Amino acid sequence: MSILQIENLEYRYGNGNKVIDGLNIEFETGMMIALTGKSGAGKTTLVSLLSGLTCPTGGKILYENQDLLAMDKYELRSKKIGVIFQGYNLLPRLTAKENVILSMDVSGKAIENKEARAIELLAKVHLTDNLQKRRVLKLSGGEQQRVAIARALSYDPQVILADEPTGNLDQANTEEVLEIFRSLANEGKCIIIATHDPQVTRFCDRVVNLEKKQEN
Predict the structure, then answer these.
(1) Mean pLDDT across the stretch 147-158?
(2) What distance, in Å, lies between the first and last C-alpha atoms of the chain?
(3) Residue spans of beta strands (DSSP E) within the chain
(4) What is the phi/psi pair of residue 166, to 5°?
(5) What pLDDT does residue 214 have?
(6) Quick one: pLDDT at residue 158?
(7) Mean pLDDT of 95-106
(8) How far is CA 210 from CA 9, 45, 129, 166, 196, in A?
C-alpha cells in the first residue's frame, strides 16, 4: 500500500539551479527503498523534502493522500515520519536511553512508560543495558547509529527516512543496521534510504536512481 507519493516534484536551489525535475514515485509500506545517484543528484534534498524540512518549488508530496504543504510539519515529524540524519544529531552528553526518552517528550505523543519504551527500543536495535546507560559521547559510530534508529522509532512512525545511514560504518555494523531496517519493513513500515553504498542497494526491495540535472 502506498503511504507517500511524489507527483511531478520539482526543487530549485536559491540560485535557480534545478536539482529535482518532474519526479514521480510511490513509496509503499512494508518495503525498503533505496535512493541512489551521483553526488549532487538530490538524494539528501529528496529526504529533506519528504520529511517536510524543505518545501518543493513545484509538484506535490502526499502523505496518505494529504498534501505535505497543508500539513502541520511538527506533527508530521513528531508522529508520522522518523528521520535518521547522516550525522546522527544525538545529544552527546545524554545517555542513549535519555536521547530516546527526550525524543518521546518532544513528540508530545501519549506514551505510558517512556523509560520502559526506550529500553525496549534500544534492546530491539541490539544495545545492551550497559550501553543504554552510557553517554552517547562514549559510544562507537555503529552504536550511535543504532541509538539514532531507536530515537526515530520512539513515537512509532509509519515512515523512516535515513540519509546515508551506513556512511560511517564498517561492514559488520552496516549489515547489522540493514538487518534492523529489514525487520522494521517486515513489520509494515516504509523504509527510505538515501545511499551511495552498493551493499545497501542490494539489500533493498527497490532502487530509485536519481539523475543529476544540468545547471540551468
Answers:
(1) 92
(2) 37
(3) 2-12, 18-28, 32-36, 58-63, 66-67, 81-84, 159-163, 190-194, 206-209
(4) -110, 10
(5) 60
(6) 95
(7) 94
(8) 12, 11, 41, 19, 11
Span 36-59, pLDDT tens digits: 999 888 999 999 999 999 999 999
Inter-CA distances, 149 with 122, 160, 177, 192, 212, Å? 9, 9, 9, 13, 29
149 phi, psi to nearest 5 deg: -65, -45
Q: What is the mean pLDDT of the chain?
A: 92
Which own/partner contact pairs does 110-113 have at CB distance under 8 Å and 24+ positions apart?
111/154, 111/155
Distance of CA 153 to the CA centre of its chain: 10
Helix (H/G/I), strand (E/B), else coil: 182: helix
pTM: 0.92
Torsions phi, psi for 59 (to 5 deg): 80, -170
Q: What domains can you pick out in the chain, each with its CATH number?
A: 31-53+73-207 (3.40.50.300)
> How confident is the model over 63-92, as pLDDT tens digits?
999 999 999 988 898 889 999 988 888 999
Distance CA 34, CA 200 (A): 7
DSSP-derived secondary structure letter, 79: I
How far is Cα 198 from Cα 216, in angstroms, rounded to an integer?
30
Amino acid at 54: T
The per-residue pLDDT for 110 is 82
